[in-house]
Amino acid sequence: MTLKALAQEKVERAGISNYSFDQEDLIMCGVRYTLEACMCGESDCDGVRLRKNSQIVRRVLQ
Asked: How many Cβ atoms are within 10 Å of 61's Cβ, its own excluded?
């Protein structure tokens, strides 16, 4: 399964419907997230980590 598919599954499981994808970034509730593989090994880990895209945040603050 791709990171994009894992992220979509994670978001839908959380009951969030206000999301879209821009290439490999997830845009959820107006915030852009970069998708990363998670290898933490936790039993409840779904294999994907979402990180706020700090470049976008910095640009908005300036």
From this structure: 6
The pLDDT tens digits along the chain (62 residues) read 899 999 999 999 999 989 999 988 999 888 899 999 998 989 889 899 999 987 654 555 55
Rounded Cα gap, residues 26 and 35, in angstroms: 7
Residue 33: partners with Cβ closer than 8 Å, 6 or more residues away:
7, 25, 26, 27, 50, 51, 52, 53
Predicted model pTM: 0.74
Question: Any residues with CB less than 8 A from the CB of 53 and at least 6 apart, and which?
Answer: 25, 32, 33, 34
CB atoms under 10 Å from CB of 11, counted, come to 18
The structure tokens 């994670």 sit at 10
